Amino acid sequence: MEDLHDSGVRTLCISDSQPLDFDKVRLWLEEILWDKKYDMGVYHCQGVLSVVNSDELHMVVREIYEIAPARKWRSGEKQTNKIVFIGWSLNEDILMDCLRACTSTTC
């Protein structure tokens, strides 16, 4: 019987507290998920995003690739971005640099 386990698959979580520009993060995720930019293969990603000029928590889901408002941020809740990637050849430095490049302060 063939061993189907791929030891190159790993889970990686990145996070940052700066609010993100919705369009920048959408384009970046499309490059990672669809275009396989940086030669990373993502099987699954899921997360929460803090988007500029929005009082709503946004969720990102890979299966259907969607970024959508999920609910209002709760009073006192820390508004942060957190994305979990599952895949192969994941590069934490590149993913963090790209996430930080999606902040509204980088134009």
What's the gist of this structure?
The protein is of the alpha+beta class. The chain has helices at 22-33, 92-101; strands spanning 9-16, 41-50, 56-61, 66-72, 81-88.
Q: Sheet with the most strands? A: 5 strands, antiparallel
CATH superfamily: CobW-like, C-terminal domain
**N- to C-terminal separation?**
53 Å
CATH architecture: 2-Layer Sandwich
Order of strands across the widest beta sheet?
A: 1-5-2-3-4
Tally of domains:
1
CA-based gyration radius: 15 Å
Helix content: 10-25%
Query: What name does the CATH topology carry?
Result: Hypothetical Protein Yjia, Chain: A,domain 2
Query: Based on DSSP secondary structure assignment, what is the total number of beta strands?
Result: 5
Q: Which consecutive residue ranges, at least 5 long each, have pLDDT under 50?
A: none
List the secondary-structure elements in sequence, H or E. Answer: EHEEEEH
Structural class call reads alpha+beta
Work out the helix count.
Answer: 2
Mean pLDDT score, rounded?
86
The general outline is: globular
Give the DSSP E fraction (strand runs of 2 or more residues): 35-45%
- CATH C-level label: Alpha Beta
Describe the fold and architecture.
Strands 1-5-2-3-4 form a 5-stranded antiparallel β-sheet, with helices on one face. Helices cover 21% and strands 36% of the residues. It contains 2 helices and 5 strands. The termini are far apart. It has one domain (20-101): Hypothetical Protein Yjia, Chain: A,domain 2 (2-Layer Sandwich). It has 107 residues and is α+β, with helices and mostly antiparallel strands.
